[in-house]
Structures are given as structure tokens and as C-alpha cells.
């Protein structure tokens, strides 16, 4: 009897052990498996709109995946240290000025919204990304320069608002400070920014700057908007290469851009109501103008291919009245004069230089550019 009772107890114990093991398996499977309501969505490497950039590897990869054009090889501060801006002051610990110094790779992000008034131009070092995604980051500099990219390489400027540099009352007289000035820079990507009201240009590219892409920016409230090349650096300017795509040029004066001597691929931009003209190719520049939307207002001239006046600079020390070469492909003009090409056979073919896909020009493109341009 004792032996039988012991056997029953042993059997009960084994049953209990088996039940406990089964319970553990069920619990573990419940913790590890997704619910039956549907599959778990794949994680996205891109930061959703409005989410602050942290400089994480995933966010870096997501941004760099959008590169197109001459600046497609720009990496900025990818793989370097992440630097966080914590102060709105012009200079000192935690400031943007401190963050962008030096040529070591650095990805600059912002701990919160920022409004920074510059006391002098902000010199940006090589191998730098300034990433304002998900924050409201505004830079101003009445009486002075904005971002200075002089002799540097591999720089990304992303999702900033830049306004009120120099003397904005003198914008028609070339008051020198620009919002972003490139001088002999190699490899620059200016993307998703809001630029307005400067004494001279919102973006100026000179001194042989090359491998530049300017994309998805909102240009507004400005007379002289965007200049590539000039007579003072004509020899270096001949080597300049710039891609300009998906920008919203919103009721500006003129020069969107003006190109002298270098090469520019201008595609999928939306031009709305300019005062004098939208695009100018002059002084032996080559411009491939592709699938842009021109919606005229105050002026009917969308494109010009000769310098104004006698072709001389403001001080009359240099004069070059030679025309530029321009090829027009797939552009749509609404209320403007027909675009006249100029020596189109001499214009370079961007498709032979880099890979890209141009969207057909039309109302859909104009709407997407208008809504998508600017900081995000």
C-alpha cells in the first residue's frame, strides 16, 4: 500500500512538472510573438515629420538617402560625433558657432527650438551637418553675413530658417552679406530651408565652388535671389557645378538663379510671380532647364540668356556681355513668354553625369513643391 501511494505521488509530481513546463512555454510564446490581429509594421529609418533629429545612425542614413545631383556624394558629418546645440547665444559653450568649428566629422542637432542672432558671419567647418529637422531653428544677422562656407568641403545645411542678413533695404544695390555664401567650397548640400530678406543674395556660389545641390528650399521676400559665378572669379567659376531641384521660388525679384560661366542643372522647381525674370544664363554658362513650372505674374519673361545692360559689373571694372547657353526640356509656362533656347547643342547632359528622375512639370509638381519646400 505504501509502495502504491509513493508511486501515485511520483506520478502526480511528474504531471505537475509537465503542466508547469507547458505554462512557461505558453507565456514565453505569448511574449515573443506578435498579436494575431495583424503583422508588426517594419521599422522606418526616417524620422517622422516633426520629430526632432537626434543624429542617430538611422536618421543620418534616412537623410543621406535623399541626395541627388552634383552634391550626391556629400556625407557631411555622417559617422562622426553628434553635437547638441543647447544655447541661443551667438558664441560660447553649447552654441551653434562652437558646434560647427573644425573639420572633424560632426552631426549638429538642436536640443530645442532656437532663435539665434549672429553678431558676425558663421564660418562652418568641413565635414559638418547642421540638422534642424523637427525643430524651429531661425538664424538672423542684421548688418552681417549668414553661413560662410569658404574653402570647405562636405557640408550639409538642413531644415533651417535664415532671414534678415546685411541691410535688407539695399538688396537691389548688392549690399554684400548673403544668407549662405560659398567661396571655393567642394561638396555642399543645401536642403529644406526657408530663406528670405538679405542685403545681397539668399545663396551665392562663387570662387570655383563645385559639387553643389540646392533642393526643396523656400525662397521668398527677396529681390536678388540666387547667384552662381561672377566676373571677379570668372576663371574659377567656369568649373562650378550646381544642381537646383524642387525649390519654391515664391514671388521674388529675379536671379533664380543667374549663372555665369559654370554648369547648372535646374529641374522640377516651381516659380511663382517674379518681378523681372526667373532664370538667367549668361557669360558662357551652360544651363539644362528641365521640367520646371513657371507661373508668371508681374513679368512675362521667364528666362533670359544675356547679361543686362552693357554686361559690366557695378564698378565698371569688368565687362562681359557674352550670352549663356540654355537647353529647355519639358518646362511649363503659364502666362509667360515661350522659353527661347540659346545654343542648346553646347549644353551638357546631366544624365551622363549622375542618376536622377525628373517629375513631369504640371500642377501636381507645383503643389508638391509648394507644400514640401522649407524646413521639416
UniProtKB/TrEMBL annotation:
Pectate lyase domain mapped to chain residues: 78-300
Cofactor list: Ca(2+)
Reactions it catalyzes: Eliminative cleavage of (1->4)-alpha-D-galacturonan to give oligosaccharides with 4-deoxy-alpha-D-galact-4-enuronosyl groups at their non-reducing ends
Listed SUPFAM superfamilies: Pectin lyase-like
A GO molecular-function descriptor: pectate lyase activity
The keyword Secreted is annotated on this UniProt entry: yes
Subcellular locations according to the entry: Secreted
One Gene Ontology CC term in the entry: extracellular region
Annotated segments matching region Disordered: 33-57
Coiled-coil zones: none
GO biological processes: polysaccharide catabolic process
Main location (coarse class): secreted
The keyword Transmembrane is annotated on this UniProt entry: no
A Pfam family that the UniProt record links to this protein: Pectate_lyase_4
SMART domains (UniProt xref): Amb_all
Biased composition (Low complexity): 43-53
Pathway annotation from the record: Glycan metabolism; pectin degradation; 2-dehydro-3-deoxy-D-gluconate from pectin: step 2/5
Keywords associated with the record: Calcium, Carbohydrate metabolism, Lyase, Metal-binding, Polysaccharide degradation, Secreted, Signal
Enzyme nomenclature, EC number: 4.2.2.2
Domain of life: Bacteria
Family: Belongs to the polysaccharide lyase 1 family.
Record-given protein name: pectate lyase
Organism: Marmoricola endophyticus
Lineage summary: Bacteria, Bacillati, Actinomycetota, Actinomycetes, Propionibacteriales
Amino acid at each position: 500500500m505504501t509502495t502504491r501511494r509513493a508511486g501515485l505521488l511520483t506520478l502526480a509530481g511528474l504531471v505537475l512538472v509537465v503542466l508547469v513546463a507547458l505554462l512557461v512555454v505558453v507565456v514565453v510564446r505569448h511574449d515573443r510573438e506578435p498579436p494575431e490581429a495583424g503583422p508588426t509594421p517594419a521599422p522606418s529609418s526616417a524620422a517622422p515629420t516633426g520629430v526632432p533629429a537626434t543624429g542617430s545612425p538611422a536618421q543620418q542614413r534616412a537623410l543621406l538617402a535623399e541626395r541627388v545631383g552634383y552634391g550626391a556624394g556629400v556625407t557631411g558629418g555622417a559617422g562622426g560625433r553628434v553635437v547638441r546645440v543647447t544655447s541661443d547665444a551667438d558664441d560660447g559653450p553649447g552654441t551653434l558657432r562652437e558646434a560647427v568649428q573644425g573639420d572633424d566629422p560632426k552631426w549638429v542637432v538642436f536640443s530645442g527650438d532656437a532663435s539665434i542672432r549672429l553678431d558676425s558671419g558663421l564660418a562652418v567647418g568641413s565635414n559638418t551637418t547642421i540638422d534642424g529637422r523637427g525643430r524651429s531653428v531661425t538664424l538672423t544677422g542684421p548688418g552681417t553675413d549668414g553661413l560662410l562656407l569658404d574653402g570647405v568641403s562636405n557640408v550639409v545645411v538642413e531644415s533651417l530658417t535664415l532671414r534678415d542678413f546685411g541691410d535688407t533695404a539695399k538688396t537691389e544695390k548688392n549690399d554684400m552679406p548673403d544668407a549662405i555664401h560659398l567661396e571655393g567650397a567642394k561638396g555642399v548640400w543645401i536642403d529644406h530651408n526657408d530663406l528670405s530678406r538679405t542685403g545681397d543674395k539668399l545663396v551665392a556660389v562663387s570662387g570655383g565652388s563645385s559639387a553643389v545641390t540646392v533642393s526643396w528650399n523656400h525662397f521668398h521676400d527677396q529681390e536678388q535671389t540666387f547667384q552662381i559665378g561672377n566676373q571677379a572669379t570668372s576663371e574659377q567659376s567656369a568649373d562650378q557645378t550646381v544642381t537646383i531641384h524642387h525649390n519654391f521660388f515664391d514671388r521674388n525679384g529675379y536671379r533664380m538663379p543667374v549663372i555665369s560661366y559654370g554648369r547648372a542643372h535646374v529641374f522640377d522647381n516651381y516659380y511663382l510671380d517674379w518681378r523681372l525674370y526667373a532664370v538667367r544664363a549668361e557669360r558662357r554658362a551652360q544651363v539644362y532647364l528641365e521640367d520646371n513650372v513657371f507661373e508668371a505674374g508681374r513679368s512675362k519673361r521667364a528666362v533670359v540668356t544675356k547679361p543686362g545692360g552693357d554686361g559690366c559689373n557695378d564698378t565698371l571694372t569688368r565687362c562681359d556681355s557674352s550670352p549663356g547657353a540654355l537647353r529647355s526640356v519639358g518646362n511649363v509656362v503659364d502666362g509667360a513668354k515661350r522659353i527661347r533656347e540659346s545654343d542648346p547643342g553646347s549644353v551638357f547632359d546631366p544624365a551622363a553625369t549622375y542618376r536622377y528622375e525628373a517629375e513631369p512639370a504640371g500642377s501636381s509638381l507645383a503643389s508638391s513643391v509648394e507644400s514640401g519646400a522649407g524646413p521639416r
